[in-house]
């Protein structure tokens, strides 16, 4: 095996292990917060900004019926609120309640963020640019693959 092939193999294995740990981290964080992993996933999506219920369902990969239960649970504990869409009053927009998330959710992830910042401090600006580019490309690959999987079996 060439050096490049070995490096690519090692990197792909590291990505696989990171994904496994990410799932474990989400499960542990959800337990700590007192919600389930789907609810935590939806909170994470809502941290990027308000979404309609149907858009939240689409991005989370769950049915619109399931997202209603998620929103009900998260609203009942104060993590989200429903609001009418100003542009289309028939639509409901779900908004993260930042104050509540800051109290209950953010502290669970602060140790992880601190550890990441510390580990990143060892890299030069140029190395951080390469890592950031790689992560952006990785996210694009994930997004494409998720869309392909949701579209159905490959031909």
Can you describe what's shown?
The protein is mainly α. The chain has a single domain, classed as Orthogonal Bundle (Arc Repressor Mutant, subunit A). A three-stranded antiparallel sheet has the order 1-3-2. Helix 2 packs across helix 3. It holds the Pfam family MarR_2. This is MarR family winged helix-turn-helix transcriptional regulator. It comes from Nonomuraea guangzhouensis.
Name the average pLDDT.
94
Name of the CATH homologous superfamily: Winged helix-like DNA-binding domain superfamily/Winged helix DNA-binding domain
Strand element count: 3
* Overall structural domain count: 1
N-to-C terminal Cα separation, in Å?
Answer: 32 Å
Largest sheet: number of strands, sense, barrel closure: 3 strands, antiparallel
Give the % helix: over 70%
Please identify the top-level CATH class: Mainly Alpha
Q: Could you spell the SSE succession in H and E letters?
A: HHEHHEEHHH
Based on Cα principal axes, name the global outline. globular
Descriptive tags:
single chain; mainly alpha; Arc Repressor Mutant, subunit A; 3-stranded antiparallel beta sheet; 8% strand
Give a brief outline of the structure.
The protein has 155 residues and is mainly α.
Question: Helices and strands in order, then pairings?
Answer:
Layout: H1 3-33, H2 37-46, E1 51-52, H3 53-60, H4 64-76, E2 80-84, E3 92-96, H5 98-104, H6 106-120, H7 125-151
Antiparallel strand pairs: 1-3, 2-3
Helix pairs in contact: 1-2, 2-3, 2-4, 3-4
